[in-house]
Amino acid sequence: MLRCSSRLLSPSLRRSNHTMIPLTPDSLNPAILKVEYAVRGELAIKSEEYRDQLKAGKSLPFKKVISSNIGNPQQKGLDQPPITFTRQVAALMEWPELATLAPDAFPKDVIARAKELRDEIGSIGAYSHSQGVPFIRKNVAKFIEGESNTLLAATAGSLSAARDGHPADPNHVFLTGGASAGVSLLISMLITPPTSGILIPIPQYPLYTATLAQYKGVPLPYNLDESDGWATSIESIEAAIAKSRKDGITPKALVIINPGNPTGALLDEPQLNSPIPLVSFHSISKGVSGECGRRGGYFELTNFSPEVIALIYKMVSIGLCPSVSGQIGVDSMVRPPQPNDESYPLWKKETDTIHAALAQRTTLMAERLNKLPGVSCVDSPGALYLYPQIHLPAQAMDAAKQAGKEPDAFYALALLDETGICVVPGSGFGQEEGTYHYRLTCLCPGVEEYVGALETFHLGFVKKYGGL
Length: 468
Description:
Homodimer. It comes from Athelia psychrophila. This protein is of the alpha/beta class. It has two domains: 165 residues, Aspartate Aminotransferase, domain 1 (Alpha-Beta Complex); 225 residues, 3-Layer(aba) Sandwich (Aspartate Aminotransferase, domain 2), CATH 3.40.640. 40% of the residues lie in helices and 11% in strands. The strands form five sheets. It has a three-stranded antiparallel β-sheet with strand order 2-7-6. A three-stranded parallel β-sheet has the order 4-3-5, with helices on both faces. Helix 3 packs across helix 5, helix 6 runs parallel beside helix 12 and helix 13 runs parallel beside helix 16. The longest helix is centred in the last third of the chain and has 27 residues. It is globular and about 70 Å long. It starts with 10 loop residues before the first helix and ends with a helix. 37% of the residues are buried.
């Protein structure tokens, strides 16, 4: 319940003896009742219950819960180490006196970076510019343009390299609390209910359908081509546009996710010059950075009029400013140490190690899953996820129906109950009728044991329900 001072209430209301009407779901905004978010849905809730039971000493068929349902690299159990440079800069921004109290603990370039940021920002406990610290927005623009030296593209990998080699205006960059905040803002501004919608790829990250439900927009699905490595199909997009117009829905935007989520696919189309307004989102949450809880991100506007940009600025101003800690994380991502810096050797070692680990885990998992009967999995060379398709025995399909579950949700619940591995069923992302999938992350250490548990479960499940 919202709290307020009694001084704001009228005397008659304060003295009223009338019975208060209870707050019920029916008394809330009806749009929120339609919001669904499978990534943190039934399976995630049940996995947390299992985790609590294990802590309490209860005996279960597994010794730990593996949260493979969400791309959260630094969560307990996955334990991807943070980049030291990022954390050292953050530490000095939180407590500048550390540089004096422990001068030998920080490389010179970290101390210089923190001082430079403090000179621009001041205390991180103060509000920043609503659009984000101007100095950091300039650094993001340089990152997009590729002004930082070209070595980054070869050494840091696609998730932290200089980006597009295309002009970027700092005034068209908005820093955000993770990419999701920017996505939600733009959707809220585009939708005019009930006759506007947004084209979303299927399978899709449920942020889009959840946010569309919140703002009474219409999801306009277009199918990715699984037979072609989950490629984006122009024909499917055109068909979706035609159908939406036939149904009286105006398509307002097209969502393209790269690398794909949940599919892990990479787009291979060359960049095109276009007059169409484009919003590009990025964050520090995934990949090598893995700083999900820091909530840092940005979006860049291209081909937007000054009038629309002014309206977007007005809307972000309502939230005062994005997290300053997150903004500092963005700065560290777009301005990593350079070869002559004292921090560079460690930064290079850490990022190379994470890249190699993710690549090795993804490749191994895809190979092993593809060898299982009734499983096919597109390899994911540049993302955190795999999205295997599963073919289930007829008896399993019948059992799922009797349990009132989608077949892939039935499979995923059985996987969790037996192994402690939490995944997200494909029915939570959308999928072509008659196909079933699940999404899992490739972040788990001890990948041999992890994949071995998936293999043992799948073979047992297929045998239990009569084989394929």
